[in-house]
Amino acid sequence: MKIFHKVLRTLLTGVLLGAAWYHPAAAQEGNSLSLAEALSLGLENNFDIRIERKRVDIAENNNSWGEAGRWPTINLVVDQQNSLSDVPNAAPFQLSGTTIRNSVSPGVNVSWTLFNGFAVNISKHRLALLEEQSMGNAALVVENTMKAIIGQYYQAVLEKERLEVFRRTLDVSGDRYRYVQERKRIGSAVTFDLLQEQTAYLTDSSNYVRQVQAYGQALRDLKVLLALPLDHQIQVSDSLEVIETNFDYDALYAQMAANNTNLRNQYLNQQLLKKSVMLAQAQQYPTITATGGYSHNRSRLDLSQANVGEGTPPVINNLSNQFFVNFTLNFTLYDGGRVKRDIANAMVEENIGDLLVDELMLELSNDLKTAVELYDVRKSLQAISALNAEASQLNVQLAEDKYSTGIINSFDYRDIQLAFLNASLENLQARYDLIQSETEILRLTGSLLQE
Prior knowledge:
about 450 residues; alpha+beta; Outer membrane efflux proteins (OEP); 3 domains; four-stranded antiparallel β-sheet; two-stranded parallel ribbon
C-alpha cells in the first residue's frame, strides 16, 4: 500500500499542476482570444494568406500594356572594334607594312510591332483576367484559412469544455474517495469499497491529465494557423453556444451559384480559355513590324608604320552618322496546318472548361444538399443530446442522495456517473459538429467571406 500511495501522490501532483494550468487565475496570464479576434489575427498573419498576397502583387505587376507588347523595344548598342594588319609583301594597290584600325559605333535601335492580329489587346485583357484570377485564388485561400481557423478555434473550445467536464467528474470522484477513506478509518467501510473508489478516482485522474494535454495541443494547432509563436499564451474565450437556423436549400443554391469562390474562379478560367482561342486565331493575321535606329561611327586608321605615298597623313580619322527606318510585313502562307491545329486545340480546351464548370456545379449542388441535410440531422442530435445531458445531470444529483443513504451501491453510482460523463461529452461534440456544419454551408454559399 505504501507503493500505491507514493504512485498516487505522484499522479495527484501532475493532476494538480494541470488543474493550476487550467485554473481561471492562471488563464488570465494568457491573452483571452475571441473567434473574431482569432480570425483577424489569422487574416493578418497566416503564412498561406501572406504568400498569396505576394502572388497577387506579381499578377498586378504583370497587368500592363508593356507586358502585353504594346510599346516598342529600345536598345542602346555600342560596337567597338580593333584590328592590326601586317603585310610585308603587298600586291599592287595594297598597303604594305603595319596598319592599325580602331572604331567605335554607338547607336540606338527601335523595334515596334505595329499590328499582330489584335494580339496585344487580347493579351492585355488576358493579363487583367489573370490578375482577377490571382485575387480569386487568394480569396479561396482566405476562405479555406478562415474555415480552418473557425474549426480549430472551436476544437480548442471543445477541448476546454471537455476538460471542465472531466474536472467536475474528478472533483466528485475525489470527494467520494476521501469520504470512503474516512469511513474506513472509523470502521464503517471495508477495503473493497476503498479500492473501488480508488479505481474510479485514478481513472478520472488519468482522463483529466490526458484532456489537459489535448487542450494544450488544440491551442498549439490554433497558434500555428494564426502564425503566433508557440510560447505565446492564449486562451479561447468563446463557448460552444449554437444558434439553430432553418436553412432553405433553394435560397442557398442561388447564393452558391452566385458567390461560391471555386465556381467564380472556374468562370474566370473559362474566360481565360476564350482568350486563348482568340490568341490562336490572331496568328492568322499578318504581322507588321517597324524598326528604326541611329548609329554614329568614329574610326581611326594608323598608317605610321605602313608604306604609303608622300603626302598621306600618318593617322586618318573618320566620322559618320546613319539613320534608318524599315518596315517588315510577315504573313504566313503555309505552316503545315500548325495555326489551324492551335485554334482547334484551344477550342477543345474551351469545351473542356465548359464541362468542368458543369461538373463543378453538380458537385457543389451535391455538397450543399449533403451539408444542409447533415446540418438538420446534427441539429436534431444536438437537441437530443442536450436533453440527455440534462437528464443525466439530474440523475447524478439524485444518485448522490441514494448513495449516501445506502439505497444504491458504489457500482450503480459509478455507472450513473459515467452515463453523465458520456452524455455531457456527447452533447459538447454534437454542438461542435453543428457549428462545423454551419461553417461548411457558409463556405459553399460564399457567405464565409461576407460574414
